[in-house]
Amino acid sequence: MRRLLIYISLALLVLVCTNCRQSGEVKPVLLRADSLLTNNLPDSALSLIGSIPLSQLHSEADKAEFILLYERILEANGLPLIGEEELLNAVAHYQRGGEPVNELLARFYLGQIYEHEGNSYEAMTQYVEAEGIYMRMAREQVKITSSENDLVSSAVARIYVNKGNIYQSKLNFNGALKMYSKALEFDHSMETLGKVAQANEALEKYDQSLEAYLSALSIAQKEGDSKSILLYGSSIAGVKFALGTPSGRVLEELFELYAKYGNSTPPHDNYILLACLYLDNGQISKAKEYAVRYMQEKSDANDIEEAGWASLMSSIAKIEGNYKEALEYQQRYASIMESINEQEKNNSVQEVEQLYYNRQLQIENENMRRQNRSAVIIYSLLVVILLGAVAGVAITWRRKLQQKNRQIGEYLAAAQDAESSKNILLGELDVQKEKEKRLKELLENRFAEIRELAGTYYEFGYSKKLQKKVEQLLSFQSFGQDMFEVIENVVNAKNNGAIEKIRSEFPSITEENIKLLNLIYAGFSPQEISVIINDTPQNIYVRKSRLKRKLAPLIEREPEISFK
Questions:
Q1: What are the extents of the domains in the chain?
Q2: Is 15 exposed, middle or buried, given 0-12, 13-18 or 19+ CB atoms closer than 10 A?
Q3: Cα gap 389→384, rounded to integer Å
Q4: Collapsed DSSP state (helix, strand, coil) of residue 136
């Protein structure tokens, strides 16, 4: 028996040494690729990191380090970012390991992937979380190396630029200007100045816009960047026109600019500006020519660009006396703007920031309440020592105060989500009055018990004793199969038979994922769900993301059953 144990130990030692050797082989390659990237050799870095066999990435740390460096190298080479699932795992790893710099960068690249996919809501979520990590690092004065500081500063500047781009795509120009102005604090480049100028121009703050454009143009001229000189010079011409410069003079300046920096050929992006200038100058045919050419040569026009073009074509048609055509363009413009506004109403990216700051405020309030409770305990002990005769009264008072503080804490932590979920669900139960009483009672009493347990669980931490007690209480609640059946009935009634359709079109989805979908549609937060089904919040986020991708064909046909 002893000899067998020796053989087993030797085998395990060999296996551990082999893994360590393989892991040790990966680390130097990653360091070399990082060095090549730092020395502005991104193509060499890409070739080197591509030589690493993925089978050698055994630990979570190796995988997280690999995907983060890989995203940086892809970006430096101008290639599309990939690896959403790997970045989610990296975020979870860096959260557990308390590595704020790497978590910030992982969330930044994850946000870019979501933004490229057109999922602005999830992109904004990642950008806000990354911004919060930076603010926490600054507040806690986290020490980082100079190379890490350069990475973080660059990432934070681009986070603000990307947030501004999302706001601008939603026609929230005030929000965009705020983000671009913050980006200037970290990166005073001509590109960022150009963004600030564009936002001011959209808000009709033409003096501020002109100042920013002139600063960007000055940098472009110092660098000898003809393309940027042409871009910012033509933008300045447009702002001058808005400030009252005659269209004829602006046209002369523009064509002088084209002759010097554009081979006498107007760039495609200037066609709308030229159409407006010719229209103001009374040259209707020229205005129409450039307006028509703009859309003919623009294969990837977004909704905002198409709306602006339709409005311009409507004005040209009115001047030509073609009122039917003008009405058609105006209706097209109104339809596009209505679609944009409806999309923003249903998927507000501004809500992401507000929810994040509300959550941070709740955390700060909770910390203050914990400090207050500690002070109460100390004073109570002093009272017990000095005034033994009134110990019973002091203990009773302390218990009441703790209970009150705990109730207030639980309410503040869950009130917003719980009240919102309750009101939404209760508002939808008017279909059947007999069922209304039963469901209201369910939402008011049984959901409240679960939320109270979840709130208690997060308020007092993850102690084994409390975790065991919470899990024991949950097992005795009516949150079993019959409860999920009731929730499923509620969800189907509220969401136009969402779960029925999912079961019908996706029979391969497991019951565990059906339960998760029921809880998501019922309005439970990922943290509450993690307590109810005994899983980590990060796994809940990952499972939600995967389910959303799986259900994408159904959601595309019936967007009303989408979920956040």
A1: 2-79, 350-462, 480-564
A2: exposed
A3: 8
A4: helix
Q: What is the pLDDT of residues 402-443, one digit of tens each?
A: 776 666 566 555 556 555 655 555 555 454 445 545 555 555
Provide the residue count of the chain: 564
pLDDT digits (tens, 9 = 90+) for 15-34: 333 444 344 578 888 889 88
66: alpha, beta or left? (left if phi > 0; alpha if psi -120 to 50):
alpha
Q: Tell me how far apart the alpha carbons of residues 372 and 394 are, in angstroms, rounded to a whole number.
A: 16
**pLDDT recorded at residue 8:** 41
Task: Write the DSSP symbol of residue 522.
Answer: T
**Nearest-angstrom CA–CA distance, 157 and 150:** 11
What is the three-class DSSP state of 427?
helix
- Positions of the chain with pLDDT under 50: 1-2, 4-23, 429, 431-433, 436, 476-478
Is residue 541 exposed (0-12), middle (13-18) or buried (19+ Cβ within 10 Å)? middle
Cβ(81)–Cβ(109) under 8 Å? Answer: yes
Token pair belonging to 299: 């294969």
What lies within 8 Å, CB to CB, of 528 at 6+ separation is 414, 417, 450, 451, 454, 519
In angstroms, the Cα distances linking 76 to 45, 79, 183 are 10, 8, 20
For the chain, the C-alpha Rg in angstroms (whole number) is 30
* Alpha carbon distances (Å) from 221 to 225, 232, 262, 265, 364: 6, 10, 15, 20, 48
Report how far apart, in Å, the C-alpha atoms of 96 and of each of 69, 86, 102, 128 are. 19, 15, 12, 19
Q: Which strand (E) or helix (H) includes residue 263? A: none
Q: Are 71 and 109 in contact (CB under 8 A)?
A: yes
Q: Which pair of tokens denotes residue 550?
A: 């799986």
For residue 563, the SS3 value is coil
Alpha helices in 224-349 (DSSP H): 226-242, 247-261, 271-280, 284-297, 303-320, 323-346
Are residues 451 and 528 in contact, defined by beta-carbon separation less than 8 angstroms? yes
